[in-house]
Amino acid sequence: MIEKRPLTESMEDYLEVILDLERTHKVARAKDIAERLQVQRGTVTGALKALAEKGLVNYAPYSFITLTPRGTAVALEISRRHQVIRNFLTEVLRIPPETAETTACRMEHVVEGMVLDRLVCFIDFMQQCPRAGTDLLGAFIHYCESGELQRKHCGTCIDECKERFRSRKE
Amino acid sequence: MIEKRPLTESMEDYLEVILDLERTHKVARAKDIAERLQVQRGTVTGALKALAEKGLVNYAPYSFITLTPRGTAVALEISRRHQVIRNFLTEVLRIPPETAETTACRMEHVVEGMVLDRLVCFIDFMQQCPRAGTDLLGAFIHYCESGELQRKHCGTCIDECKERFRSRKE
DNA sequence: ACAATAATTTTGGCTATCCTAACATTTTTT
DNA sequence: AAAAAATGTTAGGATAGCCAAAATTATTGT
Predict the structure, then answer these.
(1) Which of A116, A125, A149, B4 has the fewest CB atoms found within 10 Å of its own CB?
(2) Distance CA A95, CA A103 (A)
(3) pLDDT tens for each residue of B102-127
(4) Cβ of B98: how many Cβ atoms within 10 Å?
């Protein structure tokens, strides 16, 4: 009985939390799940039943809660989405960790494969391209705060960029 | 009777569509709203009642549907979020328009002020900073497709960047 | 004007998600 | 091992969102 209906955001959240609890504590307890998701204990029971029916968690009353292989695969996928997005928010946009975290929690349910791949690529590119790099992102932050480009410094900025590249190379 | 509960994503969608219909046709009809949101006509009636109760739309059975001033303000805000996100996806990440559009539709409900501001800023910065600009984004696309930086070209890339800046300046 | 057509609303039913409070089970203390 | 505490489950109810079909109101063509 494999349900074809796509997972709801709520169910994705449960899987993600269970995966994380499995890693930190050895096992996921309903109470901890409830706490993480800011939900009542009773609500968790219902969710677990639903997930068990979809073949994503192993569940029997009063017993341990674990992810099935399929459940683990799904949870890992969601977890990856979360990390990529949080990384983008902190590393590129320079959003403070707290905000990045909560935003990632919401965004992870709505970005599909292609966008995610591009994000991965973009983070990478910005960190590795000699013309980009941390200092370009630094200039971005300055632009954010001051609201304007310091045109007069652009020349030296580019020169420094070139210099840095040359010295790294040789 | 001003409801304090924050708008649901669904309600935000309704407001956004009504705003757009008000602009293109002079007035929003329930049938068109239903079509845009891929929902049955009956569903729209319920949503409109809810929105009317919150003071966001003017609604009476069988009459025209318009946004109240407050409703307009909210709709404009959502619409702006949508545009900024779509812009980022197309201009920076170079996601095809179609995908960018549908992704923006989902993302618009989950990004809050700070992240949005940063996105605006980032798009701007990438387009205006001489060290960034369209050609840097071009290099990004190449990196996406090939999967690697062409390190040997980096020198000339930076040189060209500098040259372009100088000639623009003088 | 008035029947035919189109648009809208109402009704009843469904799923998903959550809550509270009472109850059951397991674990821990004493 | 009995009592207490912690944890898990059930039952009943709420809200939001959707659909399908029946009932109602508007609009239009002749």
Answers:
(1) B4
(2) 10
(3) 999 999 999 999 999 999 999 999 99
(4) 8
Inter-chain residue contact A149 with B128, CB threshold 8 Å: yes
Q: Give residue-wise pLDDT tens across range A112-121.
A: 999 999 999 9
- As a dihedral over the C-alpha atoms of residue A74, residue A78, residue A80, residue A83, rounded to 10 degrees, the angle is -160
Residue B31, Cα to own-chain centre: how many angstroms?
Answer: 24
Nearest to B115 among A93, A110, A114 (CB): A93
**B161 and A166: CB-CB below 8 Å?**
no
DSSP state of A170: -
Q: What angle do CA B84, A150, A127 make, to 5 degrees?
A: 60
Q: pLDDT band for position A169 (50/70/90)? A: low
Alpha carbons within 13 angstroms on the beta-carbon side of residue B103 total 23
Say if residue A3's pLDDT is above 80: no
Q: What single string gives the DSSP state of each residue in A81-105?
A: HHHHHHHIIIIIS---HHHHHHHHH
User: CB contact, 8 Å: A94 with chain B?
Assistant: yes
Contacts of residue A157 in chain B, CB cutoff 8 Å? 131
The beta-carbon neighbor of A103 closest among B111, B157, B159 is B111
Q: Which amino acid is at A96?
A: P
> Which H helix or E strand runs over B22?
helix B9-24
CA distance A132 to chain B (A): 7
Nearest by CB to residue B103, choosing from A111, A125, A149, is A111
Strand C contact with A38 (CB < 7 A) = yes
Q: Give nearest nucleotide to A41 (CA–C1').
A: D8
Note whether A140 contacts B: Cβ–Cβ < 8 A: yes
